[in-house]
Amino acid sequence: MTIAVLGGAGYIGSHTVKYLRAAGIPLAVYDNFSTGFRESLPDSPELPVVSGDIGDAERLAHFLRQHQITAVLHLAALSVVAESFDNPRRYYHNNFVATQTLLDTLLTCDIRQLVFSSTCAIYGKPRQLPLTEEHPCQPDSPYGCSKLAVEHLLADYARAYGLRYVSLRYFNASGADPDGELGERHQPETHLIPLLLERVRQQQNGLNPPPFTIFGDDYPTPDGTCIRDYVHVWDLAQAHQLALDYVHAGGASNIFNLGQGQGYSVREVIQMAEAVTGEPIPVAIAPRRSGDTPVLYGSGAKAAELLGWRPAYTDLHSILTSAWRWHRQ
Ligand code: UDP
pTM for the full model? Predict the structure, then answer.
């Protein structure tokens, strides 16, 4: 019983690999290393790591058969909202078209258990908060649309072909693993917390980085900046194990928000970064960024009830402290 982690070299994937290995679950990783890093995965004879694309049906089928895969975690996707406006073709191709190839390949290999990485970006502008899974989905970006299209695909494949899946709608993944070995790193980096902490590090190293850019301070929020629900990556990893257990136990296909039900504004995150690092962070205000929704936070109550999900990092201070421990190194 080996679990395939597709996209296991990415930020959430590599933390999930570490978490599941610690729980003694046999894994094999498949990643095209377009955005993930080989060095985020351990060198171990017990962890096969194969370089390949989920859209390459032949290579993928060989990998699935060779490692006798029984269930799949699918985290292989592009996820930069702003980039998806410039290059929707790439986003639909990677996130949707290649996922259909993946699903067909799973069925060919007689694998019918899947955990899919979805996103709060599929909701669009909230009509009520916190967002629950029943909230209508009207994504504002090609990225969100590509993920919503996969959710439709999954529902139809489940009905027609007996696939059983869990879709995990992540809110804002953040933080670093408790050992400080892995952390948040993207190439190029676009995310708030790693950019802030990298700026602090440069400042502490005697460099003179430009002020930190806030994308818009004229949103309809108390301080004018966007509000997001930050969820620790280790808690997301925990949810993957619970989702696998749920699918293994015969649970019906289902969708779960992974949110804490509480949001923080960009300015609040900056203040917390100042408190945790002990450094002042000068800011400059820039225009709004394409695709940014003013307020997003979601209820994780359904995941708590049906999966038994219990986030350990429930406040912004502990999330930033763990992120800073990794960045400082
Ligand atoms: N943000 C910002 N400056 C930056 C990066 C991000 O003001 O250099 C804001 C961004 O506009 C959003 C929030 O921080 O409102 C979170 O952005 P991030 O890219 O981390 O996650 P997203 O919510 O887009 O997935």
Answer: 0.97
